Amino acid sequence: MLAVTLAALPSLLLSPSVPATGSRARAAAVRMAGDGPSFGDLDGSTARIGIIKARWHPEMSDSLIAGAKEALAACGVKEENIVETEVPGSYELPLAARYMALSGSVDAILPVGILIKGDTYHFEAISDSVSSGLMSVGMQTGVPILFGVLTCMSEEQARVRSIGPGNHGPDWGRAAVEMALLRQSAVGGPKSKFFMGFGDSGEDDAKPMTRPAERIGF
């Protein structure tokens, strides 16, 4: 019996069904967080970036946003071209992102939220709804919407991915600049709007745009 157990031990250690724990789990999480995409030189001097913060888990959300803003600054994004607002929770992020996209004030939007698994189905329902909603906003408006929502099984996982060397914020910031530049190239420049029946025709760009979204911080 002991021989069988020892023989099976290597495969058990390699099996993805056996979760890592303690320092091994933290090290693996940090390595995974560092395996993000590579970015070349990004000139974000004309990019207009929106950031929407969900107020749950503020320490971690603030750390993610700080990391994103450091990356934006490193890419040359001007402080006055960063539009920030906040909503109560992650479930409200898609609608806020839609308002911001339709305001014509930004080239890309980074919604930031943290969802942590609990004892009920709430986590799955919110995660699915938010991810689907954010994708839908981007497809409907033509404004790139980043997925800056951590969906974690524990608070420890969330902290590893938001505070310290595993902070996802810098990569999100660089991705926002890259997608903003992609949008600009697609619609004809930094001051162009992607019209889907919203607003005017864009013929008079010198005319200030009146929009209800100004009332909620955009």
From TrEMBL:
SUPFAM superfamilies linked to this entry: Lumazine synthase (SSF52121)
Signal peptide from the UniProt entry: 1-20
Annotated keywords: Riboflavin biosynthesis, Signal, Transferase
GO MF term set: 6,7-dimethyl-8-ribityllumazine synthase activity
Pfam families: DMRL_synthase
Family annotation (Gene3D superfamilies): Lumazine/riboflavin synthase (3.40.50.960)
Pathway info: Cofactor biosynthesis; riboflavin biosynthesis; riboflavin from 2-hydroxy-3-oxobutyl phosphate and 5-amino-6-(D-ribitylamino)uracil: step 1/2
Cited PANTHER family: 6,7-DIMETHYL-8-RIBITYLLUMAZINE SYNTHASE, 6,7-DIMETHYL-8-RIBITYLLUMAZINE SYNTHASE DMRL SYNTHASE LUMAZINE SYNTHASE
Protein's name according to its UniProt entry: 6,7-dimethyl-8-ribityllumazine synthase
